[in-house]
Batch of 2 targets.
Target 1
Amino acid sequence: MDFQLTDDQRALRTGMRELLERRFPRTRLRAVVDGDAARGDGGAVRGDGGAVRGGGLDRALWRELGAAGLFALRVPESAGGVGLGLPEVVLAFEEAGRALLPGPLVATELAAGLSGSLAAGAAQGETVVTALDEGGAPVEHLASADVVLALGSTAVEVIPAEEAARSVEPMRSVDPATPLHRTAPGRTRLDQAEQTDQVDRTDQVDRTDQVDGTDQAGPGRSGLAARLRREAALLTAAQQLGSASRTVELAVDHAKRRTQFGRPIGAFQAVQHLCAQMLVRAESARSVVYAAAVTEDPGDVAAAKLLADEAAVHNARDCLQVHGGMGFTWEADVHLHLKRAWVRAGQWQSAAAAEEELAAGLVSTVETCL
């Protein structure tokens, strides 16, 4: 069995990297981080009604990503999409994580696979979609979103961003490029209606048959919600993998250029060990993330999220160590990878949730063998 990437997959990854290097270079990242971001339509992003704030979404870039097919990779060609699969989306999102591309990428990609006008707008990059999970995880980029994809325990619904904003409050985000809002844990309105059998089935959103085939968990809302959560966790893991790989590059490059006692610091064994450990983490996570993209097994996805989170966070810390004191300064980019990794680690599937999923899978396997 050949586990190597195909030529088309390599071309997709290269094209995505080149697009982001051209449209979202370091200068653009620093503009967002430093609070000088502006909307693609020329209007300044004002999250507080006054001063321009960082973390605003570049609508022109978002539309260009849509035109490039980022959000429509799994949409069938007959519906105007690219017609690829989850492994290709993982490769593209890995590059987005490498570049620290901000925005609700995962939620918008998920929405592009749903039926109706929402899917078309999301796929083209015209509609920005963020997500609200019933677990109470922070909602990212709410001020820049048009709609919110709300996932309950057994329900999925689409809420206008203005309506969702009434029940949340802004919270301090460790990542300057990822504004967050906090909402209390609770069921969605559709969940509550389902419990009293008052659901209007015409209001439900269903993933189209051509995207991922029939729902193995059945046609109910629990199947769709569970599937969307798994896909969201995997795509978040892919972004973490991209960040982990990028910090390896940053550490090795700095170790080659920085000299101490007349020698590059990369010549010292302690630095070599740090870089080697970073590479092992990134490549270990890569194997599991790529495998989960093929199998889509809940246990594989949980393992992918767990290892990718660990690789992103620990690699960023070790990269800071290699850079020394300058790595902690605002002017350096290393701390941005650590802060984004912290935010992503709390999204969709935490370490505790992933460990519970893996434990449940092991128990099920043992019971089956017995």
Target 2
Amino acid sequence: MTRPAGALALVAAVVGALVAVVLGFLTFGAQATVAPDHVPVAVAAPPEIAQRIAAHGPGQLAWTVASPAQARQLLEDKKVYGVLELAPGPAATVVTSGAVNPAGTQVAQQALTGAATALAGVPKQEVLHPVGLAGRVAPLAASALAWIGALVAGLALTQLAKRTGRTIGAGARFLQVTGAGVLITAVVAGFFALWDSTLPLTADVLGFVFLAATAFAALQAALLRVLGLRAMAVLGPLYLVAPAVAGQVPELLNPAYRALLWSWTPFRFAAEGLRSLLQGVPGAPDVTTALWVLGALLAAGLPVTLWPARSARQEAEPHLADGVVEVGVH
């Protein structure tokens, strides 16, 4: 029985409203609820002063009392976003790092500068691993470009095969995944060179970008193979998470966004690991974590992408989700 046009119009309106809800939750909602909460910072000062400062937390800041060397090591390890050094006398220094997420750095720098000014006057500002605007933007941009580029590559292969009636074997899928990784790495390297010629295009940086792009491509190809075009309902909105959530630090996000989105989004692992590599801190813990996460995505996605059809009958039947015929390697 044909549905009335009015019912179809109502369904379309509801779908539009649901899309608006998803977009609002993934993007503007995260940005609109940003507020500092237990932002980790360190203070290196004479004991009585350090304890007095730390006694004001917890709250917007979470203080760690340490020696100057220990505090700077915490900053190198990205366990704090800034350090307040108070030497005996009027001297004060606020230390930040270009290898740390810029959102957390900005909050820490403002708060530490205010605390130092109240105690000892306007402090000296010191930046470890100085970074320009392009260096701050590049890690998240590379992660987002790798995701969307790999997604379009996987979708294009599926749709081209459907339109031309050709089959997609394991060899073609492997070529699509690795080819997307190579070409997207070249694109990212080109943008880095265009944005700031001082950004290092070393083997570890390019290798990391290739791993991220290939891991994303493998995961997306696996979901597209299993779900067909329906996978776009998951893969497309995830792209919106990159600028809205992955670019923040958890201490600035509403707890709901922190638990439901930030805690698992692959963009943050790729972005923060690449940030450390670009700023010459390959030993930072987030590099190791990112390598494990991206490696796991690649290991999970590639077997599903390349797994042969289970039977000759399946090879002859169209894929239920997108109509692409599945066959073995040709």
